[in-house]
Design goal:
Helix 11 runs antiparallel to helix 12. A hairpin with a 2-residue loop joins strand 17 and strand 18. The chain is elongated, with a radius of gyration of 37 Å. It is an alpha+beta fold and 508 residues long. It has a seven-stranded mixed beta sheet. The two termini are 53 Å apart. It has two domains: 238 residues, Ribonuclease Z/Hydroxyacylglutathione hydrolase-like (Metallo-beta-lactamase, Chain A); 161 residues, Heat Shock Protein 90, CATH 3.30.565.10.
């Protein structure tokens, strides 16, 4: 603890960092300038008003020649911090003297008749490096209490020059803070910080720093042992607008409403997921039945022929081997189909880098859209080497949904001469996959609704309207991409088909 005699001179609070202020008698609002000794590029921080001018100049000059100061840091624009700068400029008398501040504050500081040029931190990567190797990092703390407010961190000594933050109002002033300092800081912050949430934004930034010492512009210097608890106490402090009971109650009511809405959304999402899962199970059964129908019919026919020929004693050994081989192939196909569906419907979200072409082929195999090749022609304009970093199963699920919709339209409308064009290309850092058909398109009044949950134009036996909604959710939320639909028109302006477009940007 420093006594009144010891603070009559400059005090070194960290290696080459000095307090060069003064104690104002009977003034609870103590203001503190600091000096970083750095050869011909020394730095004066928050030099103060004319009340402290003579003492600040005397103490600074006892450490370094005044003309060795190249930078003056101003954490905000108030007179208790800036008013003496024009007179200090005259004493320093350097053409290359720079005022280090935020651009939002240089507009106001100039009204003190400051003559030096500005080094605006927000235009210089929030840092300052000197030729000697000294580096300062700046962290913006907007509206605490000025729009352009910031704090300065010296990473070598781990000293934080905090401006107004951590300042205190003290009737009985101590140079170093003790465990009761929060009570002094509490009064200051309740009056000068605009709101709890704005103040906490600044505190969260500061809390991430490794700090040995906090040197505020007001109050007492804070040693490391008191810093963590002080920050936590500050976070819980009601200040500024929060002191107003009406504002505070309105805010609490708003928070309660948001939490209730969040609860409702979660419940709706759970219900949606359950309904989606039931629809998915039905889709699995429908797709398996779709895949199995033809091979089972072939096996059944082969068995019937063999039984009849055997009854008539006409069954030859070569024919038995041929039929058994054909049935074995179909049984292997049935088994592989089950394996494909089990792998496809596993809730696997792990990301990997895969060829998009493989996902297209997999989804077409699941849907088996080529079973009637005389009805359907698929044209590929696909670059085979294009890859995505995403969940293969989720991406395949999206494609299955899109191809299933085309398949359903073919069945419902009994379409012939169906043409599907699949295009895959890169545009810049984006992968774009489009699936176009000539199945009649989407009614214009439905074009904006097709991705809504539960919207469907099909019979309820063919789905509950979740497929496209889930597909869009996967693309936009899991893959940060986009899925959209548009109609295709012929030369006469008639809708002839639809195109679904998936666009996903590469991850950095």
């Amino acid at each position: 603890m420093h006594n009144q005699n010891s603070i009559k001179e400059a005090l070194e609070i960290a290696p080459n960092i000095f307090w060069v202020g003064m104690h104002l008698e009977n003034d609870p609002f103590q203001c503190h300038p600091y000096l970083i000794k750095n050869g011909s590029e020394s730095i004066l921080i928050d030099p103060g008003s004319m009340l402290e001018f003579e003492e600040v100049v005397r103490k600074t000059a006892s450490i370094v020649p005044l003309n060795s100061i190249k930078y003056i840091i101003l954490h905000h624009q108030d007179p208790d911090l800036v008013a003496a700068v024009p007179e200090i400029e005259k004493l320093i008398n350097r053409d290359d003297l720079l005022i280090v501040t935020h651009s939002r504050m240089s507009l106001l500081i100039k009204h003190y008749m400051v003559k030096s040029s500005y080094y605006e931190i927000d235009k210089n990567n929030l840092s300052l490096s000197t030729q000697s190797g000294l580096k300062l990092n700046f962290h913006t703390t907007p509206y605490c209490h000025s729009p352009g407010a910031f704090v300065t961190y010296e990473p070598k000594t781990k000293v934080l020059f905090s401006g107004d933050i951590f300042g205190g109002i003290e009737e009985s002033w101590n140079f170093y803070a003790d465990e009761s300092y929060f009570e002094s800081a509490k009064l200051f912050h309740q009056e000068y910080m605009p709101s709890k949430d704005i103040f906490n934004y600044a505190l969260n930034k500061i809390q991430k720093l490794d700090i040995e010492l906090i040197a505020p512009q007001h109050g007492s210097i804070i040693e490391k042992k008191y810093i963590p608890k002080l920050i936590e106490d500050m976070k819980n402090l009601d200040c500024g607008l929060y002191i107003e009971k009406k504002y505070n109650q309105e805010l609490l009511d708003t928070i309660a409403q948001l939490r209730e809405k969040e609860k409702t959304i979660k419940e709706q999402n759970i219900l949606l997921a359950e309904q989606s899962k039931r629809a998915e199970i039905g889709e699995i059964m429908q797709n398996i039945a779709h895949q199995w129908r033809q091979p089972l019919a072939i096996i059944n026919t082969s068995v019937a022929i063999m039984k009849e020929k055997n009854r008539q004693k006409l069954l030859l050994q070569d024919e038995i081997e041929e039929k058994l081989q054909k049935m074995e192939q179909k049984i292997i196909y049935l088994s592989q189909t089950i394996e494909d569906f089990m792998n496809y419907y596993k809730p696997q979200k792990e990301k990997s880098r895969f060829f998009v072409k493989n996902a297209i082929e997999k989804s077409l195999n699941i849907i088996n859209i080529l079973q009637n090749e005389e009805k359907v022609k698929i044209e590929y304009n696909v670059k085979p080497d294009i890859k995505l970093y995403a969940s293969f199963n989720e991406f395949t699920q999206v494609l299955v949904t899109l191809f299933s919709n085309i398949n359903d339209l073919i069945v419902i409308k009994n379409l012939k001469d169906v043409h599907i064009l699949i295009t895959l290309q890169k545009e810049g850092n984006a992968t774009i996959l489009s699936i176009a058909d000539n199945c009649g398109g989407i009614a214009p009044n439905n074009l904006t609704k097709i991705f809504d949950p539960y919207f469907t134009t099909k019979h309820k036996s063919m789905g509950i309207g979740l497929g496209l909604h889930i597909a869009k959710t996967i693309i936009e939320q899991s893959m940060q991409g986009s899925l959209r639909a548009e109609n295709i028109y012929d030369s006469s302006g008639t809708i002839v088909g639809a195109k679904f477009i998936i666009e996903i940007k590469d991850e950095d």
